Structure prediction request, 86 residues.
Amino acid sequence: MQTSKNLGGVQWRLSEHTCALSDAERHLAHVFECDGKWTAFDATHAARTRKELDEVGVFDSFEDARCAVEALFVSRAMPAVRTARA
Prediction:
């Protein structure tokens, strides 16, 4: 997997059909290519069913999906890191 630009400790990790926005602690979002469309998911929140990730949307290009994911995280404070307690 190749790494793209750094967004202040948060960066995209890229491959041909699957990409992840992550920091040192967690994956924040995933973008998958399937049948020529890119589907973006917020990996920090479960969907209403709690059995899947919250879908951001389906886009024609990775760039559109990337911009939507980045806008989502800019529009709200970055989610807090949850740590296990001993």
Summary: The longest strand covers residues 37-46. The chain has one helix and six strands. Residues 31 and 46 are 15 Å apart (CA to CA).
